[in-house]
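Title: Comparing notes on inverse folding

I've been comparing how different people in this forum approach sequence design from structure. To keep things fair, I'm posting one structure and asking everyone to reply with a full sequence. Here's the target:
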């Protein structure tokens, strides 16, 4: 590293810089005596340190802003009355104010600076510099981003700088046109992010994902909110799209396959590649037997968030009193079966859309036609599960374009276009998998869902009898090895099929209504016939 000078970022009086600390040092720093409040880590019985993140235990989409300037004005997909999204415009004045708040907060301090990459591909990765005053935040980004080699650090020139001022507040947010004392603001021109008044690690992780979602599609790559894995030969790649809580992390962590990554990927002409160097798994009710690999990843160097520990460090994974969004971040090498040394694999053959349907209407698996693939990708139907976003306390049905609307910086059709191009080139097939509820009132079991995923990945699903489900015209298997036959047709899970009919019609009408926003052009109009019909 060239000599680190933070004054060029307006940060002055720095007493010491702890630069790219080792895990050993991070452990010392985050458990050191004298730390108070949310800075303090506690060692758990599994060796991983636990921290509490304060009021913000999930992302805060209403506080997400992008500076509107000459660059972003006509490229960013801004929120509008017709189509609300999380890309709120911030003025130059607001940007200057939040940046000044971060500079002031971070001045005259002992700071942590972590340089890391986002994106496994050398030619399209972003070099990111994180500047913060909290040790465990340095640990979080060390876990989640890709670690540069010693040689890469020698000449590290950041493309993007993140200032984490979680201890500060935006007092005059009203006059700045911001939403609250909390702000997560991006400047696409100067390539900077400022975080104020939230300690949730996900803002740094998903923040850089949002930036990849801005830059990569403009270069002709798909940028995707999905997990990815491949077979043991690294040949049969699958990607799993889904909103938070639908099972990306759980289902991609599969001992029979090699993990590429659990949340954020690109797809270029060479194949699928991870943006991250670690995973961020939910641990609420984590069960050692149904998710052994994730459980075993919780060891020294992993970082738990908002988990309940007693004074001796015993973990209570069932406790939701702080949040349902309890988490662990760990470097990807805590999972045994991963693609090494670079988290990438050839083009995907199978594309799986995970949807946690709280209405109990969608079949546990549907085989999609190419037109249905586009329709359901743009629709992005799922239930938001409690916790990951502020204000969501129960499963809430939502349409989240491309299964990741909160992170899209360009119009959804751009992501659909890039995905379709890549799928056509590789001859990939798509499936819609409901990891949510059915007529039993219970969530479909992880065991049944894993059976479904196995049947997709080993091709069995293409060799079984199928039938069509009304209103949606979904093709579904009538039998599938390893899966309870009684759930394949969702109507069979209701005491009376008419109960399903009623809910199905309601859900179909929600799809139809939601899709209107895409019907402004010929392509969108043409897709309507692939959607539900009443
Ligand atoms: N059928 C199912 N498939 C996948 N996950 C399930 C299922 N039923 C319950 N779950 C639970 O739902 C959560 C899925 O979360 P996760 O895999 O972290 O989602 P994501 O990575 O998409 O945010 C886990 O806590 C998992 O135990
Ligand atoms: C961390 C997040 O991702 P996911 O819940 O999809 O793992 C998030 O959305 O804040
Ligand atoms: Mn996940």
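Reply #1:
Here's my take.
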């Amino acid at each position: 590293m060239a000599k680190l000078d933070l004054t060029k970022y307006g940060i002055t009086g720095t007493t010491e810089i702890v630069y790219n600390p080792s895990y050993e040092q991070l452990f010392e720093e985050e458990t050191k005596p004298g730390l108070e409040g949310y800075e303090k880590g506690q060692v758990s019985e599994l060796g991983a340190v636990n921290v509490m993140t304060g009021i913000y235990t999930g992302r805060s989409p209403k506080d997400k802003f992008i500076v509107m300037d000459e660059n972003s004005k006509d490229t960013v997909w801004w929120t509008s009355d017709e189509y609300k999204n999380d890309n709120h415009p911030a003025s130059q004045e607001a940007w200057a104010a939040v940046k000044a708040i971060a500079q002031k907060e971070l001045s005259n301090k002992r700071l942590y600076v972590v340089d890391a990459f986002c994106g496994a591909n050398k030619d399209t990765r972003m070099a990111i510099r994180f500047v913060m005053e909290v040790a465990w935040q340095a640990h979080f980004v060390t876990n989640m981003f890709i670690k540069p080699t010693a040689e890469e650090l020698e000449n590290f020139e950041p493309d993007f700088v993140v200032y984490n001022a979680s201890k500060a507040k935006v007092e005059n947010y009203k006059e700045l046109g911001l939403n609250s004392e909390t702000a997560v603001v991006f400047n696409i021109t100067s390539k900077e992010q400022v975080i104020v008044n939230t300690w949730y690690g996900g803002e740094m992780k998903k923040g850089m994902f949002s930036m990849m979602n801005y830059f990569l599609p403009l270069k002709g790559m798909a940028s995707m909110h999905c997990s990815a894995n491949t077979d043991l030969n690294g040949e049969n790649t699958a990607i799993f799209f889904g909103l938070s809580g639908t099972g990306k992390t759980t289902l991609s962590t599969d001992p029979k396959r090699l993990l590429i990554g659990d949340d954020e990927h690109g797809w270029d002409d060479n194949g699928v590649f991870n943006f991250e160097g670690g995973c961020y798994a939910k641990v609420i009710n984590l069960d050692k037997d149904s998710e052994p690999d994730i459980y075993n990843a919780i060891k020294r160097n992993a970082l738990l968030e908002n988990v309940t520990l007693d004074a001796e460090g015993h973990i209570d994974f069932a406790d939701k009193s702080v949040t349902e969004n309890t988490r662990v971040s760990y470097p990807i090498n805590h999972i045994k079966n991963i693609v090494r040394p670079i988290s990438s694999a050839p083009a995907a053959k199978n594309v799986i859309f995970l949807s946690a349907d709280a209405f109990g209407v969608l079949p546990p698996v549907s085989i999609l036609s190419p037109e249905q693939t586009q329709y359901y990708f743009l629709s992005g139907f799922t239930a938001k599960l409690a916790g990951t976003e502020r204000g969501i306390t129960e499963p809430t049905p939502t349409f989240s374009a491309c299964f990741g609307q909160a992170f899209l910086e360009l119009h959804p059709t751009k992501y659909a276009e890039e995905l379709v191009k890549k799928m056509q080139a590789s001859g990939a097939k798509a499936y819609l998998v409901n990891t949510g509820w059915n007529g039993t009132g219970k969530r479909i079991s992880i065991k049944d869902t894993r059976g479904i995923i196995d049947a997709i990945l080993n091709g069995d699903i293409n060799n079984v009898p199928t039938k069509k489900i009304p209103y949606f015209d979904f093709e579904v298997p009538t039998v599938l090895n390893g899966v309870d036959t009684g759930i394949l047709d969702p109507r069979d899970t209701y005491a009376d099929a008419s109960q399903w009919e009623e809910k199905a019609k309601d859900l179909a009408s929600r799809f139809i209504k939601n899709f209107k926003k895409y019907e402004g052009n010929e392509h969108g109009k043409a897709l309507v016939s692939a959607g539900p019909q009443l």
